Structures are given as C-alpha cells and as structure tokens.
Amino acid sequence: MRIMSYIAVGALVGAIVVGTVSIAARAARAQTSDGNRVDVVSSKRFDATVKALTTALKREGMMVVATIDHQNMLSMVGASIKGSKTIEFGKPDMGKMLLPMAPEVGLEMPGKIYVWERGDGKTIVSYRKVAPLYASYGDKKIAQAGMMMDMMTSKLAEAAAKR
Amino acid sequence: MLITVVDVTFVLAGLTFVTIGLVRRKSAPEPEPALPLTWAELSLGGAALVAAGIGPNILVVALTPGMPEMPALGKYALLPSLALLGLAWVAAAIAGLRRLTNRIWVGIYAGAAATAVLDVVRLTGFSLGFMPGNMPRMFGVLLFDQMAVGPSTISDIIGYLYHYWVGACFGLTYTLMVGWTRWWGALIWGVLIELGMMVTPPMVIAMDTGYFGLKQGPGILIVSLTAHVAYGVIMGLLIQRYVRSRGHLPGLVWQLLWGSARHSVLSSRSGKVNTQSEI
Q1: Is residue B211 a contact partner of residue B204, using CB atoms and an 8 Å limit?
Q2: In a shared domain, residues A121 and A156
Q3: Are residues A21 and A49 in the same domain?
Q4: Which of B149, B216, B220 to probe the A interface (max A CBs under 10 A)?
Q5: How far apart are CA B193 and CA B215, in angstroms?
Q6: Domain ranges of chain B
Q7: N or C: which end of chain A has fewer CB within 10 A?
Q8: Which of A54, A68, A76 would best serve as a mutation to test chain B binding (most B beta carbons within 10 A)?
Q9: What residues of B are in contact with residue A68 (Cβ under 8 Å)?
C-alpha cells in the first residue's frame, strides 16, 4: 500500500515536472500576444531563421510571393533598425480554388510571416491566425481553407524557429 | 550602414575629376567671341537639349500621381535620350561644329563632376539626419522596381549613375543655353535647380517634405541649398575654364533668324531691281 502511494506521488510529481517543462518550452516557442497573433521565439539567428523559413516554404510546395526587407528599405531613409523581413507566400492551387468561388477572399491572400529581431537579440517568427477571417465569408470551404492555412503557417513558423 | 561603399566611390571619383579639371587649367582663358549660328548647329544643339531635358524630368514624371513608373520611363525615355545625344554629338563632330561639341562635352563633364561636390554636402546632411533619404539609392530602387527588397549594390550603382547623369544633364542644358559665363552664372543656375527641386513631386510628394522641405523643418532646405550652391560654383569654375566661346542660344537664334530674314528681304529687293533693269 505504502509502495503504491510512493508510486502515485512519484507519478504525480513526474507529471507536474514534465507538464511544467513542456508548458515552459511551449511558452518559449509560441506566445499569443493577442487573440490571433502568434509569436514563436527562434533558436536561430535572424538570417538563419529567414533561410530556414524559405527552405520550409519550398519543402511544403509554397511559393514566396514577395519578400519585404524593412531593414534594408529603411536604410535609404536613414533609419537603422534591426533585422525585419516579411515573407509573403501562397499556393497557386489555393487561389485557383477559392478566388473563382469568392473573389473577395483575395483580401486575405497571400499568407504572410514576419521575422524580426527583438530588443533582447532574439529572433521572433510572427504571424496572425487567418481562420477567423476566412470563416467570416460564411462559406464552409473557405473556412476550411483558413484553418488549413493556419495549420500550414504554424508548421512553417515552427520549422523556421526550431534548432 | 547609412553611407555605403558605392556612395564613397562615386564621390571620390567625381572629386578626382573636379581636381583634375581645376589643376589642368589653373586660370580661365579668355573666351572666343560668339560666331554666327548655323541651321545645322541649331538642329543638333536642339536635339542635345531635348536629350538633356529628359534625364532629370523622368523622375519628376514618375513620381507625379497617375504617370508612368521609372522602369518604363528608364527604358522608353532615358535610354533613347542617351542614344539621341550620342547621335547629335557624333553628327556635330563629323560636321565640324567645334562650338557645339565643346559645349556638349564640357556640359556633361562639368555637371557630372560638380555633382560629387553636391554629394559631399548632401551625404553629410543625410548622415546628420537632415535629409529625408539617400536619393541615389532610391533612384536605383525605383529604376529596378525593387522597393520591397530595398537597395542592392547593383541598384546603388545604377542609381548613382542616374544621379550623376542628372547632374550632367543640368550642366549640358546650361552650356547649350548659355555657353561661356563666369563662375557665378552657374551658381545662379544651381539655385534655380534647387528652387525647381523644392517645388516638384519627387521632394514635395514622394519624400513628403512639403514645399521647400519646410514640412520637416529648415534642415532640408539649408542642406539642399548649400549642396546646389556648391554644385553651381564648381560647375561654373569648370565651365569658365573649358567652354571656348561666348554666345547664349536665344541671342544666337535671334541673330540667325534676323540674319535669314534680312538676307531674304535683301535678295527679294535685289531681285526686283534686276527685274526692273531687265525691263
């Protein structure tokens, strides 16, 4: 009986430790600053994170539609800021499927991920969840596409941020 | 980095050309008197003047709302204008129009070289935060249509080439229109360019500086005016040394037209006299 209670306490402590570590690790990777914004702390430096993101995009069959290099762009007007790039990406198939059905969904396309350097030197991969926006069009297929987009963006952000 | 290697390279190259020009002729020789203009010189000079007008104005057009963008204007206006100027120059050389060829090369040389002096003031002002942007880098980005990714070394080089070409065009316009003057003539031209720049779309709308840059304080106007004064003075010193002859275009054109009109009146009169004597 005593042995059983030791085992139960041990399991409980173990579960608490594992849970705490897991929550802490998750908190380091993904913090939701507001309802829809997700910030993932990268374990890599800025340039390596951007490279990992573009590699992940290609691996997932996504196309980089545009890269906006805020840091380089602003150097022309005398502003010296830390690394910050917006990567816009999409899958032509998705547009092909959605836009003929509901052209107004084009407002939410393409997807974008923002990679930026925080004051403490950490690189952050940020994006917004688009599922609520897609769902607002009142069509099941479009709503599903939004959820798929969020899953894909989350996967990409994790791939960019992981060691 | 706010000031790039391309910035420094172009400025140093330009300053070298200025130094060579001033050292080679330490004092300005007495200019030759104005010779009468010919129709061939007027036509080729007019073509060169059109070409010189296109360089700076494509930027004004591109940044005016509703107008074509820089990549298209660069391809369909700037490049043809370079070809036009080249043709006018070669034709003038073949036709032995010494005055025109002299004014073309001196205008381009003096205008482009003096731009380096302008850049010394401009880049200093930019580093101190008085200027709204590093304009040649923006020209490159606009010409390559790569605003999203920002400037690259290639776009910086092309932007600087365009910037120096604009300086050359202003020099060319001056030498074609005015010919030989003392240095302060080009100083007035520099101030006029400054005034033009401060009320046209590239600064007023695109850089959002307002008229005369005053929307963002007096810094822009002070730096820009100083830069254009320096540009005008150096260009004037080079023009005074290297343009060979006096004679401004309006005066020469007037002389040409008046001379043609007089000639035709005289020949019609002599024709009448001949006809009467034949009768």
Answers
A1: yes
A2: yes
A3: no
A4: B149
A5: 20
A6: 5-266
A7: N
A8: A76
A9: 148-149
Residues of B in contact with A71 (CB under 8 A): 150
Q: Which of B1, B126, B150 sits opposite A73 (nearest CB)?
A: B150
pLDDT by residue (tens digit) across A10-60?
A: 555 555 545 544 544 454 555 555 678 999 999 999 999 999 999 999 999
Between positions 23 and 52 of A, the ones with CB within 8 A of B are: none
Which ipTM score applies to this complex?
A: 0.74
What's the gap in Å between the CA of A78 and the closest CA on chain B? 6
B131: which chain A residues are within 8 Å (Cβ-Cβ)? 78
Note the pLDDT tens digit of each residue in B91-109: 999 999 999 999 999 999 9
The nearest alpha carbon in chain A to B124 belongs to A78
User: What percentage of chain B has pLDDT greater than the value 70?
Assistant: 96
Q: Which residues contact B156 (CB under 8 A, 6 or more apart)?
A: B4, B6, B7, B136, B137, B140
pLDDT of residue B95: 96
Whether the upstream peptide bond of residue B31 has omega within 30° of 0, thus cis, is no
Pair (A72, A6) in one structural domain? no
- Most confident of the following: A78-92, B10-24, B27-41: B10-24
pLDDT, tens digit (0-9, with 9 covering 90-100), for A57-95: 999 989 999 999 999 999 999 898 999 999 999 988 889
Indicate whether A103 and A153 sit together in one domain: yes
**Cβ separation B133–A73 shorter than 8 A:** no
Q: Tell whether A42 and A18 lie within a shared domain.
A: no
Residue B22's pLDDT band, with cuts at 50, 70 and 90, is very high
Q: Is B148 within 8 Å of A76 when comparing Cβ atoms?
A: no
Structure tokens given for B256: 């040409």
> Does A69 touch chain B if contact means CB atoms closer than 8 Å?
yes
Residue B233 to residue B117: CA distance in whole angstroms: 10
Which residue range is the domain that position A19 belongs to?
1-30
C-alpha–C-alpha distance, residues B111 and B208, integer Å: 27
Shared domain for A20 and A81, answered yes or no, is no
Residue B6 and residue B3: Cα distance in Å, rounded?
Answer: 8
Q: Chain B closest CA to A140's CA: distance in Å?
A: 34
Asked if residue A128 and residue A68 are part of one domain, the reply reads yes
- In total, how many domains does chain A have? 2
Q: To 10 degrees, the CA torsion angle through B117, B14, B158, B194?
A: 20
Tell me how far apart the terminal alpha carbons of chain B are, to the nearest angstrom. 88
pLDDT digits (tens, 9 = 90+) for B176-222: 999 999 999 999 999 999 999 999 888 888 778 888 888 888 999 99
Residues A52 and A132 occupy one common structural domain:
yes
CB contact under 8 A, B2 and A80: yes
